[in-house]
């Protein structure tokens, strides 16, 4: 193998930034191995310098420089480029993806840098898993608090890669956040260690499995959405079922009433032992189906315009061991005409047509009836409250703001959920 470190000086020489995987030098092509030995200067993480020195042996070769402190490296790179030296810098994965590339471009002319990325840890992880990743998203915990991960989980991504930082947010923190979000049952938890190295390891952990005692600091976590196992209905809590146990709409995962809000809505409905409950804009059916668990004598009619709602709500009902009177895949208020008059109504949808929907409900609500509306905006409250008052209902307004504990170093940080306004109207009983 050629090994001349000195060579003809090139006017306007380039900085070749070469990505590597966990295999380091052993994973490079013969072409790049030769280019490294022919260079005048090679900068690399300290862990690779000893390998380069051993590899070149006694033959003359490039000057070696540690790149672990990139800001200290920049003046030397600028000097070598100005002298026309051949310079190679070894980096991890794709230097332009959470790598040294951004810093180099801030301080060196872009036209003097040429990047040669290796597969990122993200690419390697999905390749090892054998799963397409065009629908995947990622989040980095490097130097960051893990709180944004809690917010990301509430959106229920189909696949989420978490770039861990053992000093701030490693696998244990990711698992803790998953548990705190009530989503352990909804995700397969994969650990990927030392990807690209001969000793790489990919393993799936069940919720009860401990983390491996020899967990490598060089790891990432893959969270892959999975259909939660069918629970034994008798083993479920009476109400407040964890979010992760509900089947979701595949095109809009996470679009459901969160557990904390669900509990409040069930209380505000003042559920009767018997009677008719309308759940309008039922989503995945969570509030209405939990109402049936509390009051099996109720007659539940769920209305949801989304295609596939009947099958999904029916499947969730089977998981909970309850049976609604019917699920209508149709637009409200037109769909309400065929239903019996309600004693209790939950309006979870409506959008721009919320006023007409509420007026229709108020025209059908029985004496002593209750209507409850969770609202995301104060404008919705301003629109709907006068309609309840004009119809002679007693009105109550509540704001629900809940936080969920998220692991933070040795303590717990509270991650907020979106606040929800709850508008409740109660019609006087027949006198």
CATH superfamily of the largest domain: Vaccinia Virus protein VP39
CATH overall fold name of the largest domain: Rossmann fold
Question: CATH class of the largest domain, anyone?
Answer: Alpha Beta
Would you identify the CATH architecture of the largest domain? 3-Layer(aba) Sandwich
In spatial order, strands of the major sheet run 13-12-11-14-15-19-16
Number of domains: 3
Measured distance between first and last alpha carbons: 101 Å
Strand-residue proportion: 15-25%
Q: What is the typical, i.e. mean, pLDDT? A: 88
The largest pleated sheet is described as:
7 strands, mixed
Helix content: 25-40%
Rg, please?
30 Å
Organism: Cyanobium gracile UHCC 0281
InterPro entries: 4pyrrol_Mease (IPR000878), 4pyrrol_Methylase_sf (IPR035996), 4pyrrole_Mease_sub1 (IPR014777), 4pyrrole_Mease_sub2 (IPR014776), CbiE (IPR012818), Cbl_synth_CobL (IPR006365), Cbl_synth_MTase_CbiT (IPR014008), Cobalamin_biosynth_MTase (IPR050714)
Pathway: Cofactor biosynthesis; adenosylcobalamin biosynthesis
Protein name: Precorrin-6y C5,15-methyltransferase (Decarboxylating) subunit CbiE
């Amino acid at each position: 193998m050629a090994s001349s470190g000195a060579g003809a000086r090139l006017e306007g020489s380039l900085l070749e930034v070469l990505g590597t995987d966990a295999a380091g030098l052993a994973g490079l092509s013969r072409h790049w191995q030769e280019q490294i030995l022919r260079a005048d200067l090679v900068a690399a993480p300290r862990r690779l310098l000893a390998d380069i020195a051993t590899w070149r042996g006694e033959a003359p070769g490039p000057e070696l420089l540690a790149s672990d402190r990139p800001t200290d490296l920049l003046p030397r790179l600028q000097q070598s480029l100005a002298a026309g030296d051949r310079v190679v810098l070894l980096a991890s994965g794709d230097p332009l993806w959470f790598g040294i590339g951004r810093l180099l471009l801030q301080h060196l002319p872009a036209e003097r840098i040429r990047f040669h990325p290796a597969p990122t840890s993200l690419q390697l992880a999905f390749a090892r898993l054998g799963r397409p990743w065009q629908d995947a998203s990622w989040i980095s915990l490097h130097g960051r608090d893990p709180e944004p991960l809690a917010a990301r989980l509430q959106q229920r991504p189909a696949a989420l890669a978490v770039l861990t930082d053992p000093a701030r947010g490693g696998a244990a923190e990711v698992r803790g956040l998953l548990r705190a979000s009530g989503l352990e049952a909804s995700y397969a938890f994969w650990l990927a260690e030392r990807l690209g190295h001969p000793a790489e390891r990919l393993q799936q952990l069940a919720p009860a499995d401990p983390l491996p005692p020899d967990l490598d600091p060089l790891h990432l976590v893959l969270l892959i959405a999975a259909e939660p196992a069918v629970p034994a209905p008798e083993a479920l809590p009476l109400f407040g079922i964890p979010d992760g146990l509900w089947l979701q709409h595949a095109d809009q995962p996470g679009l459901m009433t969160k557990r904390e809000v669900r509990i409040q809505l069930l209380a505000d409905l003042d559920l009767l032992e018997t009677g008719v409950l309308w759940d309008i804009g039922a989503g995945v059916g969570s509030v209405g189906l939990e109402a049936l668990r509390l009051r099996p004598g109720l007659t539940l009619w769920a209305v949801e315009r989304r295609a596939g709602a009947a099958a999904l709500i029916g499947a969730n009902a089977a998981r909970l061991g309850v049976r609604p009177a019917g699920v209508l895949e149709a637009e409200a208020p037109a769909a309400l005409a065929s239903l019996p008059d309600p004693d209790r109504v939950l309006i979870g949808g409506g959008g721009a047509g919320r006023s007409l929907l509420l007026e229709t409900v108020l025209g059908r609500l029985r004496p002593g009836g209750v209507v409850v509306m969770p609202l995301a905006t104060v404008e919705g409250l301003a629109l709907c409250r006068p309609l309840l008052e004009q119809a002679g209902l007693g009105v109550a307004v509540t704001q629900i703001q809940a936080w969920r504990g998220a692991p933070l170093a040795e303590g717990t940080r509270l991650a907020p959920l979106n606040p929800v306004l709850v508008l409740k109207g109660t019609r006087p009983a027949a006198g």
